[in-house]
Request: fold
Amino acid sequence: METMPIGKAINAGLRAAMDRDPRVLLMGEDIGPLGGVFRVTDGLQKDFGEHRVIDTPLAEAGIVGSAIGMALRGYRPVCEIQFNGFVFPAFNQITTQLAKLRARSHGKLSVPVVLRIPSGGGIGSVEHHSESPEVLFAHTAGLRVVMPSSAHDAYWMIQQSIASADPVVFLEPERRYWEKGDVDVDLGPGEVTPLHRARVLRSGTDATLVCYGPTVKLALDAATAAAEDGTSLEVVDLRSISPLDVDTVAESVRRTGRLVVVTEAPVFHGPGAEVAARIQEACFYSLEAPVKRVGGYHLPYPAARIEEHYLPSVDRVLDAVEQSLAA
Reply:
């Protein structure tokens, strides 16, 4: 067992994958000597060389397009997009090429590309640095979309994503990069939680909180606060946004009878809407109240000085829980 921040855990996971498979290579802007904006790739170019940790031009479409070509030649590229808002110059490559080549070739072609994208807010940055664009990728068939919330998951999920035969959008909760946690680096293949399985982090009886990535800590804090008033909240970390582990969430909701979904992504057409719809279908006769959603607003991400009013908070989560219990 080792203790490390989430950013360091991703670094360690990348290192393990590169040690294990010489076909794994990294591509991105300033990921070499600088180690990336968040220093996630620190030291990797020094140890693996410029031919496997490639500093690219400032051209996201070129990064992803080159990665697709390399994947078709047998490599397993991992692309770092510097900030979430910078992914859109490559959106055409991602949605019309990367996501579709397997289906277009009737399964004959595989494009095992991983796109690492810092995501979410809370770092006091300027626009195009704090968005939560996960629903745009989850809506695109052919892409897998995941987001770890702990150092342990970050370490293992990046390796599982690299091993996937399908392209994976690997979102990283940028406000959590420096939060430390225990990582069990010695687990065997059968001991690691499958990439697309949700996990119950805290048991409860009164309502279920579903979350992922940056909102997991928020949900756990809300559950702790609620317990002081005698309310027992179960916390489920989705871990995977596409595909969704509906079964784990449904099992929890059948026990509690209530569901609150917490995301940083806007509520309007957001991932929480899909979770709400699926649970309404699966648990209609178990629900004691309508599903509630807490998230960002249907607005452009605001300036840093007021972002705390945009992002979900413990108070907003508890208010949704109170409304659900009162229904």
About this structure: The two ends are 44 Å apart (CA to CA). The longest helix spans residues 6-20. DSSP finds twelve helices and 14 strands in the chain.
